[in-house]
## 1
Amino acid sequence: MNTYDHDAIVIGGSFAGLSAAMQLARARRRVCVVDAGQPRNRFAAASHGFFGQDGEPPLAMIEQARRKLLAYPTVTLRQGTVVSATAQPDAGASTASGFDVVLDDGAGALTPLTTRKLVLAFGVKDGLPDIAGVRERWGASVLHCPYCHGYEFAGQRLGVLYHSPQSGMHAQLIADWGPTTLFLNGETTLEDSERTRLLALGIAVEPARIAALEGPDRALSGVRLAANGGADGRLVPIDALYVAATTSPASPLAEQLGCALDEGPMGPCIRTDANKMTTVPGVYAAGDATLMRHNATLASAEGVLAGVGAHQAMVFGQ
């Protein structure tokens, strides 16, 4: 029989990865969580809507989950980045016999590890629009999810940045939390009928290009329009701007391993089955990198499914 350093290596130590590791730990499996320490929600001061944790800082939630996970004797947490993962060939078998992983600890040391199963929970990177003032306000007053942040800005002046023909529906949704302006930022693809419908619903439509976002520190006080192309450079007062960021996997490992990706509305997603196994046997995936809708609760639930799926595959020899 092959021997491995771990039964499962979970790549990513945020909501999805720690949830997957907890299931494997409770099944008494040797599980290693490798985390680079860059969770996607590190820019947000609080996580909202998560069962029993509403309003808690996400980094504090992660730290608490790490402490609870380490109470299980079969768990190892390692800081670093997995730079390569390859399947160990097993002639005549329907699945790889295991995986070779190389860990970079960030200080120049490379450590080889072996594992029976892999769980990819490294999340996604956000691609933000190239507008001055967006990046430094991301997660504070430039937002992506009204269910995560909408209540805190309810009744205030809200904006939606145009990103696709679905932006009219996006603006209509955001308007349920407060008075809303759809900023076209120079886009001309909004249909006249859609513009008329939005105006009838009380949603303002601003066609001019945006020069910058303005406001103290990470707060937002308004959108400065470009003083050219027919615009007058005025400031449109708003308190929060909703942006549909594009996304891409935060690690190239899924492609490196040969996992299939599906194109989602905002970027590629790792394809998984009902047990969260990818198209590569023995490799599981969970969290934002597998979802078209991103939410901490959903990421955690996906992690649970991936951990259970990986464990049951070990039991049944899959």
## 2
Amino acid sequence: MSALFALATSVLLGLADFGGGLLTRRTPALTVVVVSQGIAVVVLGAIVTASGGWTEVGPQLWYAVAAGVVGPVGMLCFYRALALGPMGVVSPIGALGSVAVPLGVGLALGERPGLPQFAGIAVAVAGVVLASGPQTGGTSVQRRTLMLTLVAAVGFGSVMTLIAAASTTLTGLFLALFVQRVCNVAVGGGALYVSVRRGSPALDPAAGGVRALWAALPALAFVGLADVAGNGTYSVAAQTGPVTVAAVLAALYPVVTALAARAVLSERLRAVQATGAGLALAGSLLLATG
């Protein structure tokens, strides 16, 4: 069951990353973050109210607050990197943090996977690295893009670890995700305000301005809700099974992003990327059955 939730996380986050990266090519990243997360806040607020989640208020929600502060930083860096570089390269590198941070926490807490699972971890991580399509020729990824991606990687891994520690029940999870998203909107909204005061437009007039934003609301809602759902399924996976396994399976989402980019944008997967996708699948099978 834990493996299924972790794999669901990879699908949800992979599609959210693809949608978010696509939207930032026409709308400033800060606006994408604030609007998509604002929609998630409204939906989560209704769920928390209907489920009685307010009864789960406690000190553990500080983990959700921390995740809500770290999350926008990682998300903004990641969306900016996606806008600057190819999705099939940026997304897998960013995913390494989603593996490294929770995996390190799990090992520090005493988790010791069996030999088949260690093999699965090694194969899956190798697959993620190869799926990033390391440059062997042509134009290399810009240093700025790489730095933004690395900051995003650490942020993503930290968010996954923090949100998993913020709740122990389903209603508590809804509340933790709500608190996290409120903080996301507050931090992102503050950054957007500062950006506009400095002269950067909240919307690109050349791309359609407000009319384009209204037209993109369904896509923005999908990005925000898929991201929330991905955090939620990861939390369940980490609480019902080994964190070391859940972290690696959840971090396979770059394969989903790369495949979506291939299907929608016709981005070609090079041989090394296809090999990486195959290794990631093989590693996930070892982890799920080990």
## 3
Amino acid sequence: MTALFALATSLLWGMADFGGGLLTRRMPALTVVVASQTIAAVVLGAVVVATGGWSEAGPQLWFAVAAGLVGPVAMLAFYKALALGPMGVVSPLGSLGVAVPVGVGLVLGERPGLLQFAGIAVAVVGVLLAGGPQLKGAPVQRQAVLLTLLAAFGFGAVMSLIAEASSSLTGLFLALFVQRVTNVAAGGTALYVSVKRGARALPEGGFPWGLLPALAFVGLADVAANGTYSIAAQHGPVTVAAVLASLYPVVTAVAARGILSERLRGVQAAGAGLALVGTVLLATG
């Protein structure tokens, strides 16, 4: 069950990242984050009311609040890093966030078997290579590297925090709702400050209502990914769940190849293959 839900997480996160990347070509990145998360918060609010999730309120929701605060910071740092440095450098570095939940799992006493340790190593290398790292000829600003590492730490922290925010399905709905409301509050505040400083919140023609379904997909896919990861982490080793969930860059690269006809570089194809091998080792270990 852990492997199944973790792989579902990587699929959902990969498609959400792909959709979000396309939307940022039409709208400011911060607006995409706020709009998509607002839609997700409305849907989750309805689910919480329908399932009676309010009864699960407790101190563990502070983990969801923390995840909601860290998430937008990590996303904005990542987008800024992409603007400053080559994607072939930034994308693989952003995947290093998997070290956070894996480290937490090891500190808590998890000890994967030999095959699983091998699978972790192979899968992490595969994810890094799937981003198509530019090893030479690509000048990188120090600020881009620092921002990417900040984003990676934030993404990993969100994975660890959301896994601790609930212990039941209805509680998970409530935790995800609280996380999204916090996301919207933090992102909305950042957007307001950005506009006050002269940045645009919307494209020239106003809000692109035709993109609403795409925004909804991105927001809801991200929510679903957080939910499946939480279930995966609660039903098996966090070290395994985190690594399998972190295969999403492979999904994004494959989606770009299939939908946008972007050609995979040799290093990306090799990385995808290694990630698959690592997945098999983790699932069978």
## 4
Amino acid sequence: MNQGQRQPRRPERPEPPAARSPRIARRSLLAGAAALGTLAAGATSGCSRVATADAGDGGRLLEQLRAKGTVRLGLAGEQPFGYIGRDGEMTGSSPVIARRIFRELGVAEVQPFPTEFGSLITGLNALQFDVVGAGMFITPARCEQVVFSDPEYQMLSGFLVPKGNPKKLRSFADVAGTGARLATGVGYAEIAYAEEAGVKDVVTLPDQLAGLLAVEQGRVDVFAGTAVAVRNVAEGSSRAEATPEVTPYLNGKPVIDVGGFAFRSPETRLRDAFNRELHKLKRSGELLELMRPFGFREAQMTAVRARERCTG
């Protein structure tokens, strides 16, 4: 998910049933935001926590999930990773991938648990849910708190700008050079990218929808987020558009972020089993077909391993 480099921050073939409503109207997004609290409450009611202990044996969570028949998936309510569709159900690339993989692992049901992005790792480690499936960027700081699957995607940034891109903003350096007013999400990696480029003031907003509204209303000149999310949310807007992909820089080097699923640190057996199924999907090409309805393209597929990003 295009959420933070820093921590304390449609194909012709029939689409799979879980991939309904990949691109939704702003009215649906607004309704969905209101529904998040209801879904989260439902996810906790009548649901006991699955305790795990670090016995140094890779954990036993997978066996427990198979016995329960349900895995609770922590989500952040953000396109394209996990959000409320027009039918009122949680959809997005992460739930679709999770359903596909956990079915192969012998866990029949994936139960969404929407929360704030900044609460995902805390909630995971507090046993509120079992897995984080929010497209979370894999960073060394996060690898100290959780274990990641290998990434299911790679991503550059993108800008939401007024129609016609009047300030000709195509890079973070352009934003700094023109003095354009930039906004991004709370905890997004783009905060660091903007600072690296010399942007003096960065406004933080809850999500891409808030960013779109801020651009349309002229309160900011540009909203920065992940390329796919920005492209999706701009569709249908008569006053804003998405720029081509933007390459960010850190320490003078270009950055391509990768995102994966997160597991509690003791649960390496579950992570490894998840990875085996994930790599099967990659080799067969099914992973892209699962993600394509949500705006992902061949360029977002990656062979990078989590360990490469955990070591910096």
